[in-house]
Design a protein that fits this description.
heterodimer; A: mainly alpha; 4 helices; 79% helix; 0% strand; elongated; B: mainly alpha
């Protein structure tokens, strides 16, 4: 840890930020009361955390094979993770999984009742 | 009881961070970061085991897939090998396809329509 270049120090700082985002997202996944709340907390936060880790790896290793593969993987996660989260949420609502008792409004249910 | 559970969880997390960053000082720093991510996936496994519905388990498996990509990225700079990120890309692809298939199955549709 004593003879690091400047880009390596900046990369480690960004990696630590990403790991912190991962950890808080996982705490939300364990702690929140509902499928939809858990999906909300976990998917956004963990996606940003892993993209942060990959950006940190890119800054750490520069324009090498590792860096370009990290950028490619980050773009791939940014494209696919919201799609899978949306698919899970829609499928859970269609499968009739109950919302929590503290829910105030459910606009998707009202929309489905209007369409009948 | 609720305060007791909060206290147990907080003690567990604090014990892990103290053991990881203050006690075992001879471990390299990259492996300490990987240890934090593996501790996070241990928490996700709690949700896989006791999740009340099927969607909870699907969400947990999806999140584990995204975390493992981070583990592969840190392993690539810890061991100075670039093919670990290839493993991460392949893992993310498989996780994405598996999550979409499970969501479609949960929705009640068949897989080929």
């Amino acid at each position: 840890m004593h003879d690091l270049a400047l880009n390596q120090i900046i990369g480690y700082i960004i990696i630590c930020g990403g790991i912190l985002f991962d950890f808080f997202g996982v705490l939300g996944l364990v702690r929140l009361p509902d499928v939809y709340n858990r999906l909300q907390a976990a998917t956004k936060s963990v996606t940003f955390g892993s993209v942060g880790i990959l950006l940190g790896v890119f800054i750490y290793s520069g324009f090498t094979a590792t860096g370009f593969k990290a950028i490619l993987c980050a773009i791939f996660i940014l494209l696919t993770s919201p799609v899978s989260a949306h698919a899970i949420a829609k499928a859970a609502h269609k499968a009739g999984i109950k919302l929590t008792d503290k829910t105030i409004i459910d606009l998707y249910q009202e929309d489905k009742e209007l369409q009948k | 009881m609720r305060v007791f559970r909060w206290f147990i969880g907080l003690l567990f997390i604090a014990a892990f961070f103290v053991m990881n960053f203050a006690v075992f000082t001879e471990i390299p720093f990259n492996y300490k970061l990987i240890n934090v991510l593996l501790f996070c996936s241990l928490f996700i496994l709690i949700r896989v085991v006791k999740g009340p519905s099927v969607a909870d388990r699907i969400v947990a498996i999806d999140i584990i897939g995204i975390l493992i990509i981070g583990v592969c990225a840190i392993l690539a700079i810890a061991l100075q090998r670039s093919y670990f990120i290839d493993i991460g890309i392949a893992w993310g692809l498989q996780s994405f396809i598996g999550t979409l298939a499970l969501a479609k199955f949960l929705e009640g549709r068949s897989l080929d329509a």
